[in-house]
Write a structure and sequence with these properties.
single chain; alpha/beta; seven-stranded mixed β-sheet; six-stranded parallel β-sheet; 15 strands; 30% helix
């Protein structure tokens, strides 16, 4: 089968399309014929060798895929050949024509959701749901500010927050991005590349501040975020690419919190809740994965550049 292989950590050029043996499912495993694989920022950090998880070399990147069950191993009872699924992590990597996954790592994909959309389910919606529910403890009627609301996680968070009954603010760096954020659930959108955008957000809350901030680039925005919090406000740090200086008094005066998390640390009970929410949202239409760009598997290096570029607009997926 064709698969992307990383044989040394480094830049996008280390992503090599190669022929490797198609795996066979063992006990408790399924083999998925991949129709689309999602590209996430963490994939690039892992490829660089700077992520908290450093896989043994060589490896095939990717946790998010959508496709059809090709074969099942001994003891698998929930799925059979021909079932449409999305993956939430894999055993062998998603950037490939086939991927092995544990039975617990695959979930039914509704017929109304395309494979390209299905490749944008796990990390975006898993991140949005656990950030809002398990870490921010969001409640209907609160206000949430979503930075990067036009990206994969951002649009997922806007949709889910709106379905929860929150007032949703989103930021983006282009008019196209702001329009997408509003289309997918944001009541108001702001240009975070423009000087004074924080004052606009504060004014939109009548000076009260926002209850929750979902932060995708903490090394740029965290100091400003703290000044935007309402009393008892919470910043949930989803993404970060460096260091930043903050004034803790901004938190102290607001009785606020800044909390970081990784999706990989979700507990078993949290995972059950996450997938229940995803399944219901995909079925009833409140969750609608947005695909911004489809690239061939051989263009994985370009996808790794694009996923970190400013002006995100939906999810980037690779098509084997």
């Amino acid at each position: 089968m064709k698969a992307i292989q990383v044989r040394q950590f480094g830049g996008p050029e280390v992503l090599q399309l190669q022929d490797i043996p198609t795996p066979n499912p063992g006990a408790g495993q399924v083999l998925v014929r991949v129709h689309a694989a999602g590209v996430n920022p963490y994939d690039t950090y892992m490829r660089n060798g700077t992520y908290a998880i450093k896989p043994p070399l060589p490896y095939t990147p990717g946790s998010d895929a959508a496709g059809v069950i090709e074969a099942v191993g001994e003891g698998v009872s929930k799925f059979k050949s021909g079932t449409r699924v999305y993956t939430a992590r894999t055993v062998t990597g998603a950037y490939a024509e086939y991927a092995l996954a544990l039975e617990s790592q695959v979930h039914a994909l509704p017929d109304k959701i395309s494979f390209a959309q299905g490749a944008g389910v796990w990390v975006p919606y898993g991140t949005a749901i656990t950030a809002l529910v398990h870490h921010a403890h969001a409640r209907p009627g609160e206000t949430v500010l979503i930075h990067g609301a036009s990206g994969g996680v951002g649009t997922a968070a806007a949709q889910f927050a709106r379905s929860m009954g929150l007032t949703v603010f989103g930021t983006a760096s282009t008019q196209k991005g702001m329009d997408l954020a509003k289309k997918e659930g944001a009541h108001q959108a702001f240009d975070h590349s423009k000087a004074g955008y924080a004052e606009e957000i504060s004014k939109a809350t009548d000076g009260r501040g926002v209850d929750i901030i979902l932060e995708m680039l903490a090394n740029v925005n965290l100091s400003t975020d703290l000044k935007l919090l309402a009393m008892n406000g919470r910043v949930i740090i989803i993404g970060n690419r460096g260091e930043i200086t903050i004034n803790p008094r901004e938190l102290m005066g607001r009785r606020g919190t800044a909390r970081g998390f990784t999706l990989w640390a979700a507990t078993e009970s949290e995972l059950v809740e996450i997938h229940a929410a995803i399944g219901a949202g995909l079925e009833n239409g409140t969750l609608r994965p947005i695909v911004g760009k489809e690239l061939s598997l051989k263009d994985a290096a370009k996808a790794h550049l694009d996923v970190l570029a400013p002006g995100a607009h939906g999810k980037i997926v690779l098509v084997p």
